[in-house]
Amino acid sequence: MELTKLFFLVFVVQLLYVIPKTSAQLFEFLDKECGDNHSTPNAYLTNLKTALNSMSSDTQITYGYYNFTAGQQPNKVEAMSLCRADVSVDDCRDCVRSSATTLLSVCPNSMKALGYSENCVIYYTNISLFHVLTDRPFWAVRFDGNVTDNIHKLNSSLTTLMTSLQNKASLGNSILKFATGNTKITAKQSLYGLVQCSPDLTRLDCVKCVQNITLSVFTKYFITTSPFFMATGGRVISPSCNLRYELYPFYKNVTYVATPPGSTRNATSSAHGASSSKSHKIIAIIVPIVGSLVLILIIASISIFVRRKKQRKFSGNFHKEEMDTLQTLQFSTGVIKVATENFAVDNMLGKGGSATVYKGKLTDGQEIAVKRFERDAVLGEEQFKNEILTLAKLHHRNLVRLLGFCLEEDEMLLIYEFVINKSLDGFLFDPEHRASMHWETRLKIINGVARGLLYLHEESQQRVIHRDLKAANVLLDAEFIPKIADFGLAKLFKTDQSQAVISKVVGTHGYMPPEYLIQGQVSLKSDVFSFGVLILEIVSGQKNSSFQIGENEKNLLAYAWKNWQEGKAWNLVDPALSPAFSAEILRCIHIGLLCVQNNMADRPTMSSVSLMLSSYTMTLEVPLQPAFFIQNRPVLLSEPSQDNSLDQSNSRSLSVNDASVTELYPR
């Protein structure tokens, strides 16, 4: 794509270009000033070139969304590019390559820059970008043409169409959030629209992004009352979302299909009329090739046989399709042993009921965390397989990233990204560390876990119920961004499935809701309950299973409920937290109590919880009595194991006068 076919906007805070256009002017280059210069040009420029080169040369991505990071702060670069989903893969890649090259040459000293062409948007910055709503800067363009007939009808139709498209686009997945459509203005005239969000956004952030740029532009530049004007077409572009409307069908019918890396497109060809001489040449070429292939197959068969002898018998429990999908994630035992110094004690990060976690470093310098399952651990093999098949399909900022696994030489190993601050419980339930966790940090953790759960429940390719959300399974990176971990007990649902009844109840005592613990009923609301317990723990700095404030040894939920009813909710709050944030803290207690209500139907969904956390003007419902709040005789349950985990194989309904004995397995 030629340079003159690109539009570029250099980042200036709160800056807006509204450029009148005609069809002849559509591809004219916009000359403008580049933004602020960086203080260390060489380091930043090197990282910027690395990120843009990675984006330009990538041939694995087929769905039009590219994101790359290079370097470390203060010279870290985050870059993304998003293609219109109605253009072909080849056109998208051409646009990304041209845009990356041109943007770098036009803005060589800018820390942040946004570029736009007909087929793609490109943006780079020195601050966090991925999974972050970024609607500034934005760029807008409109037609000079003024609607003279049916302007009120067009305005109404435009509002309806954009609302519909923003909702439709927001319901996409982590690969694509895109929608097109049209609506009738009159019998002879239709209005056409397009909305696209960066696929790393949550559903709510997608809607919010479109609404923000719509409110900032439409009523000020596209539709005005003095003078009375409405443009016949327009578009708005920001890093996180873009939209367009016209009075003619401007979008194409080609859409992206997410295909595995290395897959090829379908192609058709004809071979009519081939001459006999060509046939002879083909035969002469094919015969030695076939002979070579046979030899290669024999060698490969021997290699596979030897390799399978080294692998655990457990690998046979994977379906063939599953193993084929996971081949690219396999590590060799030798590589992991070198990385962890043969699982040295000094590299041990922690130990659970069925696995030990070690720190390691690969030969390229990347730090990793290796989860080594015990050979004879109860539920170990099942959790190992479940975690691989679940995490391999999940990609989100607030979920721990699975790098690979190993099934050789009688080893079961999972390899993750290394998260430097380890787990939340190490900070939250340690008096010394807890005092350093200010409210801003705790609120960031609450919001991040909420976003992660929302992705699992509504935005991933497959609906996932975590079933073991707790402080120990929330990891914290260097900036205290939370990452949900340990998917060994996760339950996969179909996208239209919301609940199920299971015969084996597994999880951690104190975080499981009553309908799951007693009846084996697992649903989206199971994780909501666990999240509510986690909120109350973060606010109080107290662990639910060992709760104690002063001489009070009540259950955390019961204590929170009692003080809420008496108007003394602040009694629950960690004394280390500042009263300056009392409104936010009390609101979080309110949301936590809504999540732990005894009746599953009364608990909100994670999408509602996310909205409650992000909108302080939203009125909250009055919470009802939480689970496990028994004023008379308590329900009797067996004591949990040391790490508070249990496995109940034959669960049944419990009442106040009925006791149950559970089988306990440590995890």
What is the spatial order of strands in the main beta sheet?
2-7-12-13-9-8
CATH domain class of the largest domain: Mainly Alpha
Gyration radius, rounded: 28 Å
Query: Which shape, going by the Cα principal axes?
Result: globular
Portion in helices: 25-40%
Task: Work out the count of structural domains.
Answer: 4
How far from one another are the termini? 56 Å
Mean pLDDT: 77
Largest β sheet strand count, sense and barrel closure: 6 strands, mixed
CATH topology name of the largest domain, in short, is Transferase(Phosphotransferase), domain 1
Low-confidence stretches: 1-34, 255-277, 309-316, 631-667
What's the CATH architecture name of the largest domain?
Answer: Orthogonal Bundle
Structural class: alpha+beta
Q: Could you name the CATH homologous superfamily of the largest domain?
A: Transferase(Phosphotransferase) domain 1
Amount of beta strand = 15-25%
Count the beta strands: 26
Describe the fold and architecture.
The structure is a single chain. The chain is α+β, with helices and mostly antiparallel strands and 667 residues long. The chain folds into 4 domains: 3-125, Killer Toxin P4, Chain A; 138-246, Killer Toxin P4, Chain A (2-Layer Sandwich); 322-417, Phosphorylase Kinase, domain 1 (2-Layer Sandwich), CATH 3.30.200.20; 424-648, Transferase(Phosphotransferase), domain 1. It is 33% helix and 19% strand. The chain is built from 16 helices and 26 strands. The strands form 8 sheets. It has a 6-stranded mixed sheet with strand order 2-7-12-13-9-8, with helices on one face. Strands 1-5-6-4-3 form a 5-stranded antiparallel sheet. Strand 10 (223-225) and strand 11 (228-230) form a beta hairpin. The chain starts with 5 loop residues before the first strand and ends in a 19-residue tail after the last strand. The relative contact order is 0.07.
